[in-house]
Write a structure and sequence with these properties.
With 250 residues, this protein is α/β, with parallel strands linked by helices. It is 37% helix and 12% strand. It has a six-stranded parallel beta sheet with strand order 2-1-3-4-5-6, sandwiched between helices. The longest helix has 19 residues, at 151-169.
């Protein structure tokens, strides 16, 4: 867990979960922008940056189990979850299992750039050549172009990226299980990986209120639409904290 900005007076914490191939540092600007209203905790998956020597985890279930243990020291304040792309699936699974493991239910789940857990596509990118995988990363954006052009850097990051794609492509949700917290879904209107209909289907995964925000942009629309998303997140979480919500349909 990485905490870029300590906010001792914040009434709520937002746990941020990166996309496939992503790292905790992606959320550094968000941590600065949300302080002092919200304290941001960003997850660093094994196999990248300062954890690059650790073997990556290639299943959503495996990542979820590890994260639940890591969250325990931070449950003294209400927790919300924000995940982009692969991170949205992890956030969903963590939210489902928090109460089962003795953690307070999340006050909110923000799912960004990912179709609903019950919607699948046959992407099958985990076994493609390095060249095709790099081409896919360039297509989606979000990765540094210079990094993708450097053979030495690619050799360091591709194993973790392949592991992440394996986790996403082998994931299957458990039918019949639903959240009971509010869910806000963000999607780009030109995202090649998520249609508006696939994003809208998140509403079927919670008994609480669900809201869909369709924003201009592709898969990494959140970079250009950061101000709008920050305003939305701040409003939702400030309201939840002031209401003393511990989850549920507030």
């Amino acid at each position: 867990m990485r905490r870029f900005e300590r906010v001792p007076d914040a009434r709520v914490r937002l746990v941020c979960l990166p996309h496939a191939g992503g790292s905790a540092s992606f959320f550094f600007p968000l941590a600065k922008a949300l302080a002092p209203a919200v304290e941001v905790l960003a997850v660093q998956y094994p196999g990248r940056q300062d954890r690059r020597l650790e073997p990556p985890v290639d299943s959503i279930g495996g990542l979820t189990s590890r994260l639940l243990d890591v969250l325990r020291p931070f449950d003294d304040r209400p927790l919300a979850l924000f995940g982009h792309s692969m991170g949205a699936l992890i956030g969903y699974e963590v939210a489902l299992r928090m109460a089962e493991t003795g953690l307070p239910a999340p006050v909110h789940l923000f799912a960004s750039g990912r179709r609903a857990p019950s919607r699948y596509r046959d992407d099958d990118l985990r076994g493609v050549s390095d060249e095709r995988l790099v081409a896919e990363l360039r297509k989606l954006g979000g990765s540094d172009a210079a990094m993708l052009a450097d053979p030495e850097l690619l050799a360091m990051i591709l194993p973790a990226i392949r592991s992440d794609y394996r986790a996403v492509e082998t994931y299957r949700h458990e039918p019949g299980r639903r959240l009971d917290c509010p869910v806000t879904v963000f999607t780009g209107d030109r995202d090649p990986r998520v249609s508006v209909d696939e994003a809208r289907a998140w509403a079927g995964h919670t008994t609480g209120p669900a809201e869909l925000r369709v924003l201009p942009g592709g898969h990494f629309f959140l970079v250009d639409q950061a101000a709008l998303m920050i305003a939305t997140i701040t409003g939702k979480l400030t309201g939840a904290a002031l209401a003393g919500s511990g989850g549920g349909n507030s």
